[in-house]
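Please fill in the sequence for the structure shown.

STRUCTURE ENCODING:
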């Protein structure tokens, strides 16, 4: 066992998590976490991946009854081990600032690698994700089945149900997560570090997502725990951030249920170093907003309803964005099925995304509406029922931009579906994939399927479903009537 502890220390030295001279102190801290007073000498030299080393140490802790044998308990434990190796917050912040003085990209490159080296972002988990591209008339959509976010096994679910409830931290975004030991119903974060930044003269924090949906997937969150709100200050902060980190985009989920993200209780943004299909999509219809002739504006060729603003003055962009938001909040168009509110409940909001284009700022405003009806109880502008076998969850910021984050269940379901199609089985009689039966009939009717091409065909068909998901979520459909309705809204902004 000593050789594995030494291998972990060598890993920390190689990745500059600790310094030469720290070895004895760190070794003793690791012994403490392992619940050991000492270990027998051995002469083995271990050359394994970090994940493999942690697995061996965790297996030993499980065998000795120190750790329960379920996925959550095991991750709580291996995070505790990595917490011993992770530098103090002040060291991380000092290093980030020093790198930023070299360049913003240098700072984020260092911090992203650091967040992986500490195993806060699990490289082995990222490697499990399934990803492919789908080419359509809107560009190249990204499709992913995310497996890096662990699904709880039955034992972990049972243990979480029995765990004491706690209000600390208030949510998984709060700054109090930094260094937190975790519990069965809250992830461990001893190896998690955050960097303070200022947005709108307010204290915010910068971190990376542990579940990397795209390259350098970052989260920027308010130091205070208060709900999401899209307002003028939101646009100012997004644009200020991309001014400080011009190689990153930054966007916000909408602030209403159904069309918002999974966490509406804590004001936050998401960004990163990745160009989505929506960012590449061209403006197909130019707009001109009265009093803002200096700002380029237009409707983007995209399945959802997007107004793009571009210009070199971020204040002017934010001012016009706020004008559009104000108009949209109160806008109804019965002919287009858009209602600003029903029974006093508001429905209209915006998903904004900011980026730099050379010296210019660019702001995409995605119009959202969370109206529900008897026919569409989960949302009129939400994936419709015929698509729920693939995607039922909210269409948040990441999906809006063109990246499908699909549930982990699809890995096994799609594999079983392929086998059933090739074997000519009755799919409707197989419980675990019966929900895909009608879809499978349609796939077989429009494709010549063989064992050699079935994986490519299924991936293409999943991409087509995601395209339809985005079209369902668009408030203005890509028909002549939909385009005319979109222009009516644009005219209403000028009429203010």
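FILLED IN BY: designer on duty
SEQUENCE:
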């Amino acid at each position: 066992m000593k050789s594995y502890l030494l291998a972990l220390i060598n890993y920390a030295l190689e990745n500059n998590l600790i310094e030469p001279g720290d070895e004895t102190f760190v070794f003793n801290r690791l012994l403490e976490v392992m619940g050991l007073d000492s270990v027998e000498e051995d002469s083995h030299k271990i050359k394994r991946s970090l994940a493999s080393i942690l697995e061996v140490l965790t297996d030993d802790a499980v065998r000795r009854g120190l750790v329960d044998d379920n996925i959550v308990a095991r991750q709580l434990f291996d995070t505790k081990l990595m917490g011993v190796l992770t530098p103090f917050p002040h060291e991380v912040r000092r290093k980030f600032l020093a790198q930023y003085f070299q360049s913003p990209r240098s700072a984020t490159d260092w911090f992203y690698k650091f967040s992986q080296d500490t195993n806060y972002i699990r490289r082995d988990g990222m490697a499990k994700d399934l990803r492919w591209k789908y080419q359509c008339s809107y560009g190249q959509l990204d499709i992913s089945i995310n497996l890096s976010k662990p699904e709880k096994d039955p034992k972990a679910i049972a243990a979480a149900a029995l765990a004491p409830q706690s209000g600390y931290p208030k949510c998984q975004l709060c700054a109090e997560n930094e260094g937190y030991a975790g519990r069965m119903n809250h992830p461990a974060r001893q190896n998690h570090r955050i960097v303070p930044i200022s947005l709108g003269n307010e204290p915010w924090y910068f971190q990376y997502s542990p579940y990397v949906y795209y390259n350098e997937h970052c989260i920027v969150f308010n130091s205070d725990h208060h709900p999401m709100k899209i307002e003028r200050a939101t646009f100012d902060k997004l644009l200020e951030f991309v001014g400080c980190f011009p190689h990153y985009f930054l966007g916000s989920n909408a602030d209403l249920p159904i069309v918002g993200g999974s966490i509406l209780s804590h004001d936050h943004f998401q960004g990163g170093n990745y160009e989505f299909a929506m960012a590449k999509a061209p403006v197909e219809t130019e707009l001109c907003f009265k009093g803002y002739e200096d700002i380029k504006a237009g409707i983007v060729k995209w399945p959802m309803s997007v107004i793009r603003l571009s210009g070199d003055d971020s204040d002017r962009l934010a001012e016009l964005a706020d004008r559009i938001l104000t108009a949209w909040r109160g806008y109804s168009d019965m002919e287009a099925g858009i209602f600003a509110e029903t029974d006093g409940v508001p429905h209209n909001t915006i998903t904004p995304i900011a980026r730099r284009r050379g010296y210019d700022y660019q702001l995409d405003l995605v119009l959202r509406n969370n109206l529900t009806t008897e026919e569409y109880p989960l949302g009129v502008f939400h994936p419709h029922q015929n698509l729920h076998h693939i995607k039922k969850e909210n269409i948040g910021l990441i999906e809006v931009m063109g990246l499908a984050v699909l549930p982990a269940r699809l890995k096994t379901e799609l594999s079983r579906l392929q086998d059933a199609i090739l074997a000519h089985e009755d799919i409707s009689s197989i419980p675990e994939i019966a929900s895909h039966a009608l879809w499978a009939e349609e796939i077989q009717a429009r494709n010549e399927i063989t064992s050699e091409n079935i994986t490519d065909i299924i991936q293409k068909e999943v991409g087509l479903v995601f395209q339809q998901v985005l079209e369902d979520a668009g408030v203005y459909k890509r028909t002549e009537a939909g385009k005319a309705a979109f222009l009516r809204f644009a005219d209403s902004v000028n009429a203010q």
